[in-house]
Amino acid sequence: MKTNRILKTFLWVSAVFVLAGWARAEQTLTVVSFGGSYARACVEGYHKAFTEETGIRIKLEDYNGGLAQIRAQVDSGAVHWDVVDTESAPLLTGCDEGLFEYVDDLELPPGPDGTPASEDFFDGMLNDCGVGTLIYSTVIAYNPEYIEGEAPTSIRDFFDLEKYPGRRGMFRAPTTNLEFALMGDGVPPDKVFEELSTDEGMARAFRKLDSIKEQVVWWETGAQPPQMLADGEVVMSTAWNGRIFNAQVLEKQPFVIIWDSHIRDTGFMAIVAGAPNLENARKFVAFATSTRAMVGVANRISYAPVRRSGLPLVGKHVEAGVDMQPHMPTYPDNSRNFLWNDVEWWSERQDELTERFNAWLSR
């Protein structure tokens, strides 16, 4: 009898240790991002390294940005996302609404030379609710196979249906489209948001969009513009620069980026309020915003690091061997005429203008 009790105790203790070890090995973290070539660059650039170093397995899901799905989870108290890859305007709005956890106390890794993170990040990259990861841009791209005569070189050409007939691709949202419309109508980048802040300027932007509306194919995911350009469904399209780069370099598409009047924005990592795996999420955000992680992404897709230590370390594409520096939005030759997204301006007007834009679309 005593032997049986000892055996049972041994088996019980063993089972506890096995289960505990299994639980540690099976720790997961749900990370939500924009899919496609960007998501692949993140997986190879730092997701795998994070799992190897921590044992935390990442469950990666795709979304199209914005706050709707996050609001629904937080408001219902049924949060199943942990970390979201988001843009600057939704981050600011979501932070004000309590949709994200505060990360201002997060201990971020220093630069490779020991520079404190607070000094290594560019200005504006450390937010109460998020940490910057990259700089990307919305650009105009075209397929030269469907362009006759002189190649387009400016935002004005995008709106010139007479000189460059054919359909255009545009993001199905007011963001970037209103800015492109005014720049296409001759407004300098540094005056765009000033102009949009007036009733006359807003009307001017919509009039410019009206001039090409019948020729626009609206896209909603980053994978669509390269596909539409390749298929000849459109001759020019707005697009995220990294998606066009991927098509150019890995898929050997002949696409050309028009850097004139591109619109820059910043990607951030944020933690959903009430995240079920909060501590692991904090570990992930710290890892994802290290110089190592940023360079890991930048050497796979053309999104620039937001740490000072990162830019000099960007080298060649890990598969294609292409020098990545000239493909970055921040490269000097690409920086002659561009617009920074005004995060605060959009955070105050996003819902109102989305409603107005959708009403305009339906007319």
Keywords:
globular, alpha/beta, 41% helix, eleven-stranded mixed β-sheet, D-Maltodextrin-Binding Protein, domain 2
Structural description of this entry:
The chain is an alpha/beta fold and 363 residues long. The protein folds into 2 domains: 27-135 and 267-325, D-Maltodextrin-Binding Protein, domain 2 (3-Layer(aba) Sandwich); 136-264 and 327-362, Periplasmic binding protein-like II (D-Maltodextrin-Binding Protein, domain 2). It contains 14 helices and 11 strands. The protein has helices spanning 2-25, 36-54, 68-76, 88-96, 117-120, 155-158, 177-184, 192-196, 199-210, 224-231, 241-249, 278-288, 291-298, 343-362; strands spanning 28-33, 57-62, 83-87, 126-127, 130-142, 168-171, 216-219, 236-240, 256-271, 304-305, 338-340. Strands 1, 2, 3, 4, 5, 6, 7, 8, 9, 10 and 11 form an 11-stranded mixed β-sheet that branches. The longest helix is centred in the N-terminal third of the chain and has 24 residues, at 2-25. The radius of gyration is 23 Å and the shape is globular.
